[in-house]
Structures are given as structure tokens and as C-alpha cells.
Design goal:
- There is one protein chain.
- The protein has 363 residues and is of the alpha/beta class.
- Helices cover 39% and strands 15% of the residues.
- The chain contains 12 helices and 13 strands.
- The chain has helices at 2-14, 18-31, 70-75, 119-128, 149-160, 185-206, 221-233, 269-283, 298-306, 316-321, 324-340, 353-357, and strands spanning 46-48, 51-53, 57-59, 80-86, 99-102, 107-110, 136-140, 167-170, 211-215, 238-241, 262-265, 289-292, 311-314.
- The strands form 3 sheets. Strands 3-4-7-8-9-10-12-13 form an 8-stranded parallel beta barrel, surrounded by 5 helices. A 3-stranded antiparallel β-sheet has the order 5-6-11, with no helix packed on it. It has a two-stranded antiparallel sheet with strand order 1-2.
- Helix 5 runs parallel beside helix 6, helix 7 crosses helix 8 (269-283) and helix 9 (298-306) packs across helix 11.
- The longest helix has 22 residues, at 185-206.
- The N and C termini lie far apart (40 Å).
């Protein structure tokens, strides 16, 4: 049924401006009677940062920015949903057009700029679904004009710790000027110290809330050393590797590839996998990683796990493959388990990380 709905909706969505198509997709998932996906094979289940995931496939932040459809996405077969990015105060983001499909490259460029309805609106929605179950994390960011951006992240923790399964600190979007500067060592150390302190302070009422750090794939390896060292010292619960890239890989064919913004989709995969593997070998098992960037097939999902991801997130791949991609990935993961006679997908995490770091740097 999900595949049928995909086939019917795809021509309509492709006829629209990409941002209008995204808005329509949200509305369709809100109101269309999407049947629940088949129950997951127990072997796909995994426990990561203290949470039990029915399968390791999540949808990345950016799709359901305002927490309008987490239940529908979980029903479609995702093992978890990450909503946001959410800023403390509402803000419109950058001017349109700001979302571009690269059809010839199976990629997407966005320069949305943290368009958000604000924390209060999202809090109401998450509180209303609190008893619905499922793992729903939230990705928090800073307002563009905030005088103290670190304080915005602290507010995000304080606001959402009680209603989110986990909170992701997003300092890696390229579309808010200066935001990636928060990845610099001294600033990052202060940010994580204040964020973890806030999490611990509200835990008495909110309960334990894992805190994840989302980084850019464009970090120099020396900077990655600093980021991982600080994340380990401040005892974050995990990292998401990574966000979109401001680089433009060789060989892009679509004329839209010259647009400013962050690139995602298939062209990002080699860089995203390399940065994931580099992070994995530096983390040394202290905390788990979530792999994002470029997944649009069962093979690329499996490659992400073998490069070091305990969980994976998809988004741009859905633009070109639809919700049927979820089932394809599950089939590939189960086939891997059958080949290796493994009991869980966790047995494959990081199996190829050392080999990936030995390859030439992605062009």
C-alpha cells in the first residue's frame, strides 16, 4: 500500500516547487490513511544510548520540522523520528526559493535557515502525543539573531527534555551565518558543559534524556580530533555524523548544483561515510554514532552501518525513492544478518571503519 501511494503521489509532487511539494507531503501523511508497516523482525531491534529501537532506520531532522507527523512516520516503518530543527522563538528562515532538487545527481540543496514555528508550538504537539509511544527525538538550534546562541541550546534542553526521547544539539547547519563556529574547541566545550549541566539539572523531573551532538561533514580532521575529544570529555550520549556539506563533489551534472546551501543526497555519501568512519575510530566505542548523509538504497544503508553507525537516518533519499526505501533497507539488513549468521545488526557496526579511513579522500 505504501508503494502504491508513492507511485500515485510522485508525479504530483514532482510537478510542484520542491518546498511546496514537501509541504504537500506533510499534509498527505497527516490525513491519508496510511496503513501501518509490517512488524519488524526482532533481529533488527537494537539498544542505543539507553533506548530500545525496533529497527535502526530513522528519519533525519528537516523533514518534520514542526513535529506535525511523528506518529504517521513511525507508522510508516521508521524505527525512530527526529523532529526539528526547532528554535526557541519562531523565525521564517531564509527567503525563497531555498530548496532545490538535483534530479541529474539524485541530490538536494537547501538553504532553509532554521525556519521554525518555535519551541512553544512544537512542545504542545510533543506533549499531546506523549502517550503514543515510539522514539521521537528533537533537534534544537539557535535563533539567527540570538545574542547568546549557547543559551538558546540550553533553553532547548530545558524545554524538551521531558517530552523527547533524546535531544540533538545541531551546530552544523551551514545556513545560519556563524553557526558552525560553535564547533570550534573553546566554544564547543562551553556549549556542551552548559547543555549537559542543563540536562542533569532537569533530570529530576524529566528523567534521563540522551544528548546528541550533530556535526558537519566538512570538518578538518584536526578539528574533528578536538570535537570528539570534547564530546568524550563532556560525556555526550552520541553524535550524528553528519549534516549537509557546503562542498561540491566533482562530477555534479545538474545545473542547480551551483545554488548556495547545504548539499545532501547521493553526492554526499562518500564524504559522509568517510567522516563517519573517521569519527568512529576516534570515539573508540565510548558512545554510539548515528550515520546520516547519502543513503538511498539498502546497500548504502548497510555501508553506513559498517562504517560505524549504530543507527542511520534518511531524508533526501525519500525524495527520489519514496517510503518504499524503508522496506528496501530492512530487507538488505536482514540479508546481511543471514549471510553472516549474526543475531543482531549491532554485530556489523564499524566492521569496515578502518578500511574506509585508509581509502583516498573523496573527491
Amino acid at each position: 500500500m505504501i508503494s502504491l501511494l508513492d507511485r500515485l503521489a510522485r508525479p504530483l509532487l514532482y510537478a510542484l516547487d520542491p518546498e511546496d511539494a514537501h509541504r504537500l507531503a506533510i499534509r498527505m501523511l497527516q490525513f491519508a490513511p496510511v496503513p501501518p508497516a509490517q512488524p519488524d523482525d526482532a533481529r533488527l531491534g537494537t539498544r542505543v544510548f539507553g533506548l530500545n529501537f525496533p529497527n535502526p532506520i530513522g528519519i533525519a531532522a528537516g523533514f518534520d520540522k514542526h513535529a506535525e507527523i511523528p506518529n504517521a512516520l513511525l507508522r510508516s516503518g521508521f524505527g525512530f523520528v527526529e523532529v526539528g530543527t526547532v528554535t526557541p522563538l519562531p523565525q521564517p528562515g531564509n527567503s525563497r526559493p531555498r530548496l532545490f532538487r538535483l534530479d541529474a545527481d539524485l541530490g538536494v540543496i537547501n538553504r532553509l535557515g532554521f525556519n521554525s514555528e518555535g519551541a512553544e508550538a512544537v512542545l504542545r504537539r510533543l506533549a499531546a502525543r506523549a502517550k503514543a509511544g515510539g522514539i521521537v527525538g528533537i533537534n534544537v538550534g539557535a535563533n539567527k539573531d540570538a545574542a547568546d546562541r549557547v543559551a538558546d541550546y540550553v533553553r532547548g534542553i530545558e524545554k524538551f527534555a521531558a517530552v523527547a526521547s533524546y535531544v540533538t544539539v545541531n551546530i552544523s547547519s551551514p545556513n545560519t551565518p556563524g553557526l558552525r563556529d560553535l564547533q570550534q574547541a573553546a566554544v564547543l566545550d562551553d556549549l556542551l558543559a552548559r547543555v549537559i549541566n542543563a540536562r542533569d539539572r532537569v533530570a529530576r523531573n524529566a528523567g534521563p534524556t540522551p544528548v546528541l551532538l550533530k556535526i558537519a561533514p566538512d570538518l578538518a580532521l584536526s578539528d574533528l580530533d578536538d570535537v570528539v575529544g570534547i564530546a568524550r570529555a563532556r560525556r555526550v550520549d552520541g553524535m550524528i555524523v553528519g549534516n549537509t556539506t557546503v562542498s561540491r563533489p566533482a562530477g555534479l551534472r545538474d545545473r542547480q548544483s551551483a545554488q548556495a546551501g547545504g548539499l545532501s543526497g547521493r553526492p554526499l555519501l562518500p564524504l559522509a561515510d568517510r567522516m563517519l568512519a573517521e569519527t568512529y575510530v576516534r570515539v573508540e566505542g565510548v558512545f554510539p554514532l548515528v550515520g546520516a548523509g547519502g543513503i538511498d538504497s539498502g546497500a548504502s544503508a548497510l555501508g553506513k552501518i559498517r562504517a560505524g553507525a549504530s543507527l542511520i537516518q534518511i531524508y533526501s533519499g525519500l525524495v527520489f525513492r519514496g517510503l518504499g526505501l524503508i522496506g528496501e533497507i530492512k530487507t538488505a539488513l536482514l540479508a546481511e544478518l543471514d549471510r553472516d549468521d549474526s543475531q543482531t545488526i549491532a554485530d556489523s557496526v564499524g566492521a569496515d571503519a578502518a578500511a574506509v579511513t585508509a581509502e583516498p579522500w573523496p573527491a
